[in-house]
């Protein structure tokens, strides 16, 4: 079953062309047969009327002693096959004259003036000398059928030659007519994933314009819904920062005023909870920024300085051997925003340190091809769990504390930059661990940048 609109239209038009061609052939055959019969009858009548005076002169000028049975066959000038044969009879039915190939069986007795058809011939009789003689001329019907078939085959050949040209013409017409629709679909496919601006429809056919209106209306509603969701997330996280900071300050002051160690420990638990809430609000703001799609800069920037700066921050609070960094010698330019890239690296390293094996270093490598890889030792994660880790608030089986937003933020930024994120466990070549790879950081398309 054809699912393509172009295929269905082309098939319908081809079928219609084929039916019309067959109908034209049949109509041509019918018209040609009638015209051949009309022209042949006219030729018979004209030939008979021209031969009759000659036959009368020959009969009248004949001597009485020439032929006792009063009939004579006209000798041929040279041997040939006669298409038309004729004979002359008197009013008593006696044969007076005939052509050299004439057969008497062709001309039945008692023929009346005008046209007569037998199973094998078309005969025309023309009387003369006040009806005392009659000239009969006959033409084989097979000759007429042959002429009709030749003419019909000539028409059929023209139609057969025309049919491929018609098929190509139909295909080109359909393809040209559907070109605005293909351009419309291409403009949708070429858009960045965060571009929800209205689609242009000025070149669309009238029948397709309502579809464009419906798509634009749908995108407008989707844009409003996403904007409301992102605004709620960002505003909520932003509004939480001030009261959380105030609560932390009050908690720290309260802890200094506690008279006993037990009460100070309780206040410390409250402080840790507030720190966790602060980190969650910060991650929510990062996630809102990532999902907003504005993760590309105005020009390509080298990723190496950003990566070195983030890793240096981690090394200030941890052992220098806990992170192994491998950078290329040449610059690694990318369209991704430097702040967004820093958020990606920071979340990946924090995730690797929290959930990796203690005492084992985190390995980070940036290739000149624009691929970033972060590896850490740790338990092997099943495939179905790896697929869920990039969703918000999803965490693996671990005792480490966290919000479950780190990889979701990374995935949102990577997707917004036009790159791809891949999680593998165990690390290729290792027996354990998790590897997070980001590819195509160099090829963020300008189209997506505009989005």
Automatic annotation (TrEMBL):
Keyword terms, alphabetized: ATP-binding, Kinase, Membrane, Nucleotide-binding, Phosphoprotein, Signal, Transferase, Transmembrane, Transmembrane helix, Two-component regulatory system
Signal peptide per UniProt: 1-26
EC number, as in UniProt: 2.7.13.3
Subcellular location: Membrane
Gene3D superfamilies: 1.10.287.130, Histidine kinase-like ATPase, C-terminal domain (3.30.565.10)
Catalytic activity: ATP + protein L-histidine = ADP + protein N-phospho-L-histidine
Domain Histidine kinase as annotated: residue spans: 235-444
Start and end residues of each HAMP domain: 175-227
Membrane topology, record value: Multi-pass membrane protein
Broad EC category: transferase
Transmembrane segments: 151-174
A GO term for molecular function: protein histidine kinase activity
InterPro entries: HAMP_dom, HATPase_C_sf, HATPase_dom, His_kinase_dom, HisK_dim/P_dom, HisK_dim/P_sf, TCS_sensor_his_kinase
PANTHER family noted in UniProt: SENSOR HISTIDINE KINASE YKOH, SENSOR PROTEIN QSEC
Protein name per UniProt: histidine kinase
